[in-house]
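Whiteboard transcription, Tuesday session. T.W. wrote the structure tokens on the left side:
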């Protein structure tokens, strides 16, 4: 479970674990993100389930409501940020920057979702940050 929750242990890298998890996600998305929306949705669904379960498990094991080393939620957020979009280098890079800023700043309503219990609270706030990032990417897409 720890291997999944920590994003293949990227969340155990020193300093800024959420950023390392997001960078891992950006690399995976750039090279492996399918163009088919149904496959993208399936990946997001599977990652969501894995995130809730593994994040909850690791949080309980460590006795920490939201351990920094858990980054599968950032991976999910990045997947949602690129849902239905092309994973070209510009979009992935901009998505990474926007997602990290939004995830760190936690503008409303993101903070509300952190209050959900266990792995759900760990996961859903990043999913919402991913949705906000996706909307922004779509809005500025014509400007790129």
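and on the right, the sequence the group agreed on:
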């Amino acid at each position: 479970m720890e291997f999944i929750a920590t994003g293949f242990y990227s969340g155990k890298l020193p300093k800024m674990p959420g950023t390392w998890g997001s960078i891992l996600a950006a690399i995976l998305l750039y090279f492996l993100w399918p163009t088919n929306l149904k496959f993208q949705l399936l990946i997001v669904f599977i990652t969501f389930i894995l995130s809730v379960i593994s994040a909850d498990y690791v949080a309980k094991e460590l006795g920490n409501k939201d351990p920094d080393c858990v980054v599968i939620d950032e991976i999910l957020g990045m997947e949602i940020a690129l849902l239905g979009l092309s994973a070209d280098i510009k979009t992935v890079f901009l998505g990474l920057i926007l997602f990290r800023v939004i995830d760190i700043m936690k503008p409303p309503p993101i903070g509300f979702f952190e209050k959900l219990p266990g792995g759900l609270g760990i996961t859903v706030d990043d999913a919402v940050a991913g949705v906000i990032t996706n909307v922004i990417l779509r809005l500025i897409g014509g400007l790129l």
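Someone added at the bottom: The mean pLDDT is 96.
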